[in-house]
Write the structure tokens for this entry.
Amino acid sequence: MSAAAVAPAPAERIVGQVEEDARWLSVQGLPCLLTTDLLLPHFRVRDFLALRVGSIVGTHWGLERDIPLQVNGIFIGWGELEGGRTRLALRITELA
């Protein structure tokens, strides 16, 4: 078995995580934009102009399908929408 195939010991993994976290300390407070896109292939300008408070826009996206997530335009994983009484939330289900 080669040395590359040997997994690091737990203590080595923890040290590696701390070192990795330390590299991010200087940028952790910077803002970033988390977005998701739902494709509406038949949505037209007339549909946009007809939007009103309370309008419902149908998508062809199945409820069982996760939606793609991006941070600053870079794909990072998948999530699902969840609704509450007055809020819409996004649950991250998989990171890329």
Observations:
- The mean pLDDT is 82.
